[in-house]
Task: structure prediction
Amino acid sequence: MKINRTPLEWFIDRYYIITDTDCGIINVPNGWFADPHDLGTEIKRLVYVSLETSYQNN
Result:
């Protein structure tokens, strides 16, 4: 199965504040990380995975 989006693109697409209309739960992406530096670390990991995957597929 070929996926057309990188992990970083997937992450960015979902990184926004949204309120569930059925139950009212608010998803705040900044709450995903206990330390603000963790966001940068996660982005580095996603870029690394994207690059390694592209190298293996070529």
